[in-house]
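Supplementary Text 2. Reproducibility record for the structural model of the 343-residue chain.

All settings were left at their defaults, and a single model was retained for analysis rather than an ensemble. We include the record here because the model underlies the residue-level annotations in Supplementary Table 4.
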Amino acid sequence: MEGSVADELRVALDDAEARESCLVPSTTAVRNRLDHLTRRGELARVQSSAYARAAHWDGLDAARRAMCRIRALATLHPDWVFCGASAALVHGLSVSYRSASRIEVATRKEAPCRSTRNVGRHVIGRDERTVVAGVRVSTLERTVYDCLRRLDFRGGLALADSALRVTGKPREWLTSLFAAPHKGARGIKHARVVASYADGRAESGGESIARGAMIELGFMLPELQVEVPDPLEPWHGYRVDFAWAALDGATVFGEFDGREKYRNPRMTQGRDAVDVFADERLRESRISAQGARILRFSFADLLDDQRFSRLLVAYGVPRVGEPGRIELRPGHRDWQPSDDGSR
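Retained model, structure tokens:
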């Protein structure tokens, strides 16, 4: 980029990145310049009329890319009302990368628009619309109602957990969204089952998806976010993602290893990834000193149901149901470790 035009574009791109959006050209001349820079590989065209620096775009995950696209489309189409998974992202809910990649927009029953390859259209009432952070979206209640009916069990559980976490509301609020008046609606029975398992204590979408896999594979529900005392400093404790009493009576602590805690500056708190990893190892040694088994797993393990099942079985996690049959199962309520680390 050269001269004053280059400076203006640089400022505009900086502003778009600060707003976590994309640059929407204001004139044909600007668009032509952006297209030229795209051909040179400096920019990425992420929509027909939305651009971002290629290096910046490559560094974003699917959810953040989707949010950039949504904000750019909101600029291009100020009358659009986003719904479904797109609205869920705007509301700050956990959405799977696959669901986040498709833009969903509301349409009116009296003037419906058809879905296209890139944009899904869904009928939303006028009283079910709101504005969040400057973006027109379906209300939180309508968004959750739509998503839980359409998403698979694991993705739906991640969204349901996050809805409780974000709002601070009890599970009864969630289940009330699928009460009697909606009887017979497509996906309503599935949504009710998902809602019945929702738990706002889950701290991330990955943890929720892992719990969903445990449920679908027939394993006992774990207790979530259990406080474990430090044996050397009893006044200081650690919190683990999952906890079970194993079949042999031993304690099993489960830890979901998402890569974000080593990469996301908000989670590393400015520390180097090596320091974060070293702290994790120290934490694990203190927890295991109590005699508990520590089961660690990642998204890679969740991609293979047989592998994940073998892992849970190897650590003694009780299996209490048939795989594929999602039904309410007993969990560990008011779980507390004993002095020797067993339940």
